[in-house]
Amino acid sequence: MATLADIAREVGVSNKTVSLTLRGKRCSSEETAKRIYEVAERTGYLEKYTTRTNNLEQFSFIGFIADNVATSPYSVELLRGAQAEALSHGRILLVGSLESEMQNLAGICRMFRTYKAAGFIYASQHRQYVNHADCFGDESVVYMNCTPVNSNGKIILPDDEKGGYLQASHLLELGHRNIAIISLPHEDPATSLRLKGISKAMAKQGLSLNADMCHLGVSGYFDVGETYIAYEKAREVLTAANRPSAIICGNDRIALMVMNAAGDLGIKVPSELSVIGFDDFKTISEHVRPQLTTVSLPHFEMGQRAVSEIIKGSAQSNFVNLISCELIKRQSCAPL
């Protein structure tokens, strides 16, 4: 029976490279990783490795593939929620993190299969469309914060439309009617949904959402690079003749820039300008002064639901489960 050293010698790499590769870690080129798996399978080592790890099946592993989520302060709650739900059912979460869209995804999936994972969760840092049909086989797959193209799977998403509705409704209830919007890029699927929710809230008050109310706070998008221009846009909006009494922001970072612009112009928040964010990124929302009223993204609950769907093992696929956002009232909004 071949040993790990035999495989390393035949492929021409170190023992450590073979070991890490078989565990789904990226430490070599995709071509070298493929060669390692081919040799391991031909020599019978992969079967022995799988047999050894099968002794761990009693723990019922679940695979969690993170698209930059593990290190993203905005989305780490996805992972925390999944971990909490897995532990509550006596399951163990196996985590593989991608630094780029396809980096070693196939290797991570092979590692999860070695451990007989009950299913895979693919979590995205931001809402987007993904196409990984070639990497996923017959496993139960739950897509979290993203939508698959050309593949089956359950989909867990935040209810961005309801989130936009909550933002606008809160300001309308406070008496604001002259409201500006500084949003995320149009390429972000969340943007159109939040604008739809804002429009619905305004329609209930007999108002309409006009194009001249809407401004972009970000130039570019994730795949081509993005630049925040919210500070400059806020100064432009706040020095216009018809200055708004409130601004709806695409996220908390945009809200922070709006508040900075207002401060530099001598405009007081919230007595002269109400500002509402989106995300509830607590590093901003709880530490800026005044503290930021915002709408929270339900990342923790999404993580819990994703694991729950894997455990349920339902045959239904391609259904979309929307998780409600929550209005977090703090001190950055005031009655008109």
What does this structure look like?
Helix content is 39%, strand content 21%. It has 336 residues and is α/β, with parallel strands linked by helices. Strands 2-1-3-4-5-13 form a six-stranded parallel sheet, with helices on both faces. Strand 8 and strand 9 (225-228) form a beta hairpin. The longest helix is centred in the middle third of the chain and has 16 residues, at 189-204. The radius of gyration is 24 Å and the shape is elongated.
Feature tags:
single chain; 336 residues; 12 helices; 6-stranded parallel beta sheet
Radius of gyration: 24 Å
Number of helical stretches of at least 4 residues: 12
Helix content: 25-40%
Q: How many angstroms separate the termini?
A: 78 Å
Mean pLDDT: 86
Strand order of the largest sheet: 2-1-3-4-5-13
Q: Which consecutive residue ranges, at least 5 long each, have pLDDT under 50?
A: 54-59
What is the strand tally? 14
Structure class? alpha/beta
Give the ordered list of helices and strands: HHHHEHEHEEEHEHEEEHEHEHEHEE
**What proportion of the residues form beta strands (DSSP E)?**
15-25%
Shape: elongated
Sketch the major β-sheet. Answer: 6 strands, parallel
Give a short overview:
The protein is α/β, with parallel strands linked by helices and 336 residues long. The chain is built from twelve helices and 14 strands.
What is the topological layout?
Blueprint: H1 4-11, H2 15-22, H3 30-42, H4 45-53, E1 61-67, H5 76-88, E2 92-98, H6 105-114, E3 120-130, E4 141-148, E5 154-158, H7 160-173, E6 179-183, H8 189-204, E7 214-216, E8 218-221, E9 225-228, H9 230-238, E10 246-249, H10 252-264, E11 274-276, H11 282-285, E12 294-296, H12 299-312, E13 320-323, E14 326-328
Helix pairs in contact: 1-2, 1-3, 5-12, 7-8, 9-10
